Amino acid sequence: MSLRIGFIGVGGIASLHIESLKRIDEAEIVSVYDVSPENAANAAERTGAQVMDSAEDVLDPGRIDAVYICTPQFARGNLEELAAKRGIHLFVEKPLGLNVEEVLQKEKAILESGIIHSVGYCLRYLDTVQQAKAYLNGRQAHLIQAYRFGGSHPARWWHQLDMSGGHLVDAVTHQVDMIRYLAGEFQEIEAKFGRVSFDRQQAQGTIYDAGAITFSMEGGTIGSITESCLSVHHSSSDVKLFGPDFFVHLSNNGFTLTIVDENQNETVTSAVEPYFEQSKAFIDAIIRHTQEPVLSSYSDAARTLAVTLAANRSSVEHTALQL
């Protein structure tokens, strides 16, 4: 069985999905579209797909079975709803958008349609993250510490808060999602963001250069997230969970796992490619007509988005917000 795949947006992140799908026998990329004709032509050359005239032209149920939407979060429009209406299975890159109400409307359309849907929280597919999740089953951390430091995205739109949502919404969302996946739902969040360096170096942008977020979770766990997208000499992406008799540390964006308790002090490194595992699960779900292989549904991703957008709002309103 060959599933016909379309792509809307074939920039950097889409390239990772394309390379993964090329390794899956059941998947065939047949249609691509990008606002950059050069990007579209390059993707077509790599895959043998046809370049379409518009995003809507990609969403032809007579031509494709599933679509990957990899456009920036500000440029989605009603593409997800249109795919759902036309019965086209849907993979969407994170984050889902910049407005929770709009995302929830899309969620409703997707769920009512019955299509298979997946969102690009690829770190859930790491064997290390799965091992951590299994270990934490039945255990509760009392403290969670997470951080993500590194450089900025080169695109001009990414530096505009109303187009990207900032580093937290766009990138640190992976750490927020990992916390949710491993430890449950957020209950309250409070955030402070700053622009000390960006104000001097890049006054035309509006995103923050650093953030400090505190939170509580439904089970009583408390924690913090610190982040910066202007850390050129040090990069790190970690989640640490502290329990009364255990310590779990996912470092290197989840690729390295350390578990320490009275019986073990073990560090392992992931042996899988998360983008490949993610696409394989999505294709498998379509073939089997079940959401079961998909580890991040649209609904799940909507909850992660709500946490990050609440943090942004908390900073503006100078108050803690309930989730």
From TrEMBL:
<dbReference type="InterPro" id="IPR052515">
    <property type="entry name" value="Gfo/Idh/MocA_Oxidoreductase"/>
</dbReference>
<feature type="domain" description="GFO/IDH/MocA-like oxidoreductase">
    <location>
        <begin position="150"/>
        <end position="243"/>
    </location>
</feature>
<dbReference type="Pfam" id="PF22725">
    <property type="entry name" value="GFO_IDH_MocA_C3"/>
</dbReference>
<dbReference type="Pfam" id="PF01408">
    <property type="entry name" value="GFO_IDH_MocA"/>
</dbReference>
<dbReference type="InterPro" id="IPR000683">
    <property type="entry name" value="Gfo/Idh/MocA-like_OxRdtase_N"/>
</dbReference>
<protein>
    <submittedName>
        <fullName>Gfo/Idh/MocA family oxidoreductase</fullName>
    </submittedName>
</protein>
<feature type="domain" description="Gfo/Idh/MocA-like oxidoreductase N-terminal">
    <location>
        <begin position="3"/>
        <end position="120"/>
    </location>
</feature>
<dbReference type="InterPro" id="IPR055170">
    <property type="entry name" value="GFO_IDH_MocA-like_dom"/>
</dbReference>
<dbReference type="InterPro" id="IPR036291">
    <property type="entry name" value="NAD(P)-bd_dom_sf"/>
</dbReference>
